[in-house]
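Re: your question from the hallway

Yes, I did run it. Sequences:
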Amino acid sequence: MMLLFGTIPDKNLPMTYGQVRQEGDYLYADGQRFSRTQGTGAMISAALAICNYFKLDPPHVLVAGDIGDGKGTRDIYKYLTEHVVELAPAVITMHYSLPIMALLKKLCDTIKGCEKRPFMIADAGAMYAAKGAGLATEFDIFTPDTSEIAFLADPQATHPAYISHHLLACDADKIPGQIADAFKNNSAAKLLLVKGKTDYVAQAREILATIDEPNVPTLEPIGGTGDTITGLVSGLVYAGMEPKNAAIFACRTNRTAGILARPTPATKVKDIIDQFPVVCRDYYDAWNKNVKIL
Amino acid sequence: MAIKSKNSDSVGDGLVTFRDVASAMKGERVLRSSGYEVKLVAPPAELRLGCDLALEVNLVEQAGIERVFTDEDVTFVSFTPLSTHSSPMCDIVKVTDFGQWVMIKCGNMKLSFEKATGKIVNVSGGGCPDIPYLNAEMVDKTLTAAPHPNELGYTLCATMLERAYEEALNIYNGDTRS
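Structure:
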């Protein structure tokens, strides 16, 4: 079972756990409806598209409404900490949430009691908490963007708002050095997928792959296009791909969907997500011939 | 500057300093009653301003905490990261011109708007829960009609978005005046 964890920007959404399905612009789980177009919702939608293509069970989601005050974040951490051993997910992806380091520490301690350790992926607030709490190496994949890799490379920062200026101001060609620093500082997961103009896939201080085609500059302004990469790589790992190949496929899928959607800076992420089934159907066999994935 | 080493029962990664003890104690009371986990601590010598109490807080919640202080009339001096050699908050702004649209990036946050109308077309970046909420509240509204991120946000991501928003407003007002 794959478990997707994160907050939803709807203060009226109670904590919800269940298998997810999509209907129109909404996702449904355990009788609750929430948007697929924002943050965690975009991540879930991307993972769901991959599960559908590979004919896997839909992901389970653990979500709660949170508009920034941390109430929903605390609810889902409490539930997961209390139930993760019995739920025994194969993959856990942790996403938008208030980065409360103490809650993540407690969860990670509990996960050590799982009969089989889940494959752990983090992005957004959960990744900030993991880095801040010194728990990055407990995770298998982080999916930072270019400002977030600077944050991971800065040994002192506990939030991207406090990155050393020389790190944030640097050129894109400094990213490999930041990746190396993140590993050196134990602030990286086992694999890093760095999302940017050029995407980097790195493991054990080594850059394994870079992806820069197709180049779609107008994806950067679109809110949620990083979240979809996190969902894609989650689904692909759950489908059985090696993490490195899952990361490469996730980047290619997002970029190719971007080309197909012909985006402008005003395009919404749902228009990109709607292209994922097309990309899977039309490109995956050809890509698989070049990179043996399954 | 060595500020303070964290101990096992620390509740956060930042300190709020106050000018007097009464403000610090009131700050603790109003934050606890609003659901925040905070702890009164002795500030390090470098940060002492006459008050010998500070509040240890989760720094990411800075924007929400500031709002509680404003609402409850609590006067504070500053927020400071609780780590050695910490950097000040990021203030680097990058502007990318997409022709019909402009993207403003501040720290980990990006805001894009249409030049001619000032309509916010996308908000991206960030990782805290108020960012998708601010996206929903701000996108498809004009810069002048949209809520300010610091009015609705609670976190450092919202603070970064506020800086991007202010820069966007400056650019838009400059454009419309020219």
